Amino acid sequence: MAQDVLLQVKDLRTSFRVEGEYYAAVDGVNLDIYKNEVFALVGESGCGKSAMALSITRLHNMNYTRCEGEVLYEGKNLLTMTLPEINKIRGGSIGMIFQDPLTAMNPLMRVGAQIEETLTYHTNMNRSEKKSRTLELLDQVGMVNPALTYDQFPHELSGGMRQRAMIAMAIAAKPEIIIADEPTTALDVTIQAQILDLLDELRGSTGGSMLLITHDLGVVADIADRVAVMYAGQIVEIATVFELFANPLHPYTRSLLNSMPSALTEEARLHTIQGIVPSLQNLPRSGCRFAERIPWHHASLHEEDPQYHEVSPGHFVLCSCYKTFTLKAGA
Amino acid sequence: MALLEVKDLKVHFPIHGGILGRVVGYVKAVDGVSFSIEPGQTIGLVGESGSGKSTIGKSILGLTHITAGTIRFDGKDITKSVRKNRSPYRKSVQMIFQDVYSSLNPRKRVLDIIAEPLRNFENLSKTEERKRVDELLSIVGMTPDNASKYPFEFSGGQRQRIGVARAIALKPRLIVCDEPVSALDLSVQAQVLNHLKDIQQELKMAYLFISHDLGVVKHMCEHLAIMHHARFVEYGTRKDIYENAAHIYTKRLIAAIPDIDPNKRKDNARNRAEINALYEKELPDYYRDGYGVYDLRPISDTHQVAML
Ligand SMILES: Nc1ncnc2c1ncn2[C@@H]1O[C@H](COP(=O)(O)OP(=O)(O)OP(=O)(O)O)[C@@H](O)[C@H]1O
Ligand SMILES: Nc1ncnc2c1ncn2[C@@H]1O[C@H](COP(=O)(O)OP(=O)(O)OP(=O)(O)O)[C@@H](O)[C@H]1O
Ligand code: SF4
Ligand SMILES: [Mg+2]
Ligand SMILES: [Mg+2]
After folding, report:
1. Which residue out of A96, A280, A283 has the highest number of ligand 1 atoms within 8 Å of its CB and is therefore the one to mutate?
2. Residues within 5 Å of ion ligand 4 by Cβ?
3. Which of A202, A300, B75, B140 has its CA 20 to 30 A from that of B306?
4. CB atoms closer than 10 angstroms to residue A142
5. Three-class SS state of A79
6. Domains of chain B and any CATH numbers
7. How many Cβ atoms are within 10 Å of A105's Cβ, its own excluded?
8. Is the CB of A317 under 6 A from ligand 3?
């Protein structure tokens, strides 16, 4: 099952400076994103998903961030490219949808003008082409009144409208890869479906791929081809979406799927994974990072230095405990 | 007596046009909305992106102008005063903001952000204050060593949790929760929701709970309002809405809830397409000129629908 790789992340380590010391938020991640696939990345809040996305497009503030490893796109390492080179790719062949729309938008510039700016930089359209393309984009992302939104400032839009304006900006130049960090958190389910269809259509038309970061497992089930599960800076499991939902193996993945909305009924209490995630400076850096959250799992069963095991073609899990691990009732 | 009573609320924003920036029209963000919340009650507010949910929330907090209508809190009309003098009211009513990051002062440490309401309204010693902040952090699943950091040092979900901690710090009587858990994974989300339910029982807190997640809303809210085009299209109990939806927009919304089973993709897509077609067909029965929402009328003791 050889597939063409479009983007390759190799041993990526992204560290932030906290009180003078650097701590890795992404701690040795390896991923291949194939051509024409939706690759979903899920994981607990704070596990390093956005840190990874921002490393790929090199949007971290390098005054307090360090990125090591390689991110290969068309054979070139994005991490060592010159600034003009990366600027050409960013917003051009790689589109980025940020978790926080306001950081991506200029508060003093009208929405239409911001989208047109991307078109100016990455296409050869003339003025009227740019305007009609922008109006078309605003319509495609479900704005009720594209002409009005065109002239509005970001603060005059609702949360979900801002998110959609940013999506319009990210896809304006028809990128080959879309990195979408929680792209639909502010959208109602009908517009969410419309946006996911739009992103999927775009991917189909360019033969491109999408790295989709989301905590919404419904969205993952709906459009992902493969899924990586991240915990405390590491990928703990990778599989196709069908395999992962049918046969989750890592204890974190299983706890996560166990928290799913069958639980979200009218039951008095919702399921949580016990324990609290330590902050970046205090993350366990050796052995299994998840071990302390499943205290009933006997110490002798833990792998000292968990390694990846390929349990079936393309299904990788960190550690061999899947052979013995059981979820505790109510855990 | 209702804790909060909103009557015929309208919020219209002017649209400026031309070189002179004259007012050429209005965005009718909220256009005639009424509801009330009892102490200890949770009302869910769901609806289309851009339909006016956050604007309702902000108007209750006095964070936007009010074009028409009245807001009463504890029986007192606060419509005029809420923007001017928010202080005693401000202790009783808090908001968890949808735009988390812009609601957190970037130059303040988390300790100061969460302690700010405490400093304004409660006289705590430094150690008491620190203890309270640590407690609040742990409620939202964060360790005390985070208190000395700045907002930019956090992930999206961590920032959202800081906003939750700040809003519950004073144990207010009403919290407008605007997408309070939208950036959280299921486990942390459950932790925050469980806590919101606990303190509600303990303190009789009331919530106006805005969310796009229909699973979360179902779990949290005994009553729901469905919003579309700046108005309520349906209002009822959890059961009325989830088992007996009457408005075509509500039906469409419920049909679009994604199923958590990758094997059902095709079925889901087909369901969505069917309901969208039905929506287009039945639109004229539910909207005046294809857009305007009719007045609500009762179809049972608890259930109201906007139809002719
Ligand atoms: N600029 C920064 N300085 C210091 N620490 C940071 C910075 N940005 C993120 N972190 C920390 O790095 C870790 C990973 O953050 P990241 O934003 O990647 O999480 P995430 O997986 O995207 O979470 P979420 O789902 O909540 O958005 C977190 O512990 C966060 O506190
Ligand atoms: N300050 C403002 N100036 C002009 N228009 C505004 C302003 N604030 C909101 N609006 C408009 O009011 C309408 C309702 O916005 P609101 O934020 O209340 O929607 P919402 O229901 O919260 O949507 P979402 O689910 O996307 O957050 C939108 O059309 C928006 O563009
Ligand atoms: S057995 Fe392995 S994966 Fe499981 S918790 Fe222990 S070290 Fe982690
Ligand atoms: Mg993030
Ligand atoms: Mg809103």
Report:
1. A280
2. A 50, 99; B 155-156
3. B75
4. 23
5. coil
6. 4-221 (3.40.50.300), 222-308 (no CATH)
7. 20
8. no
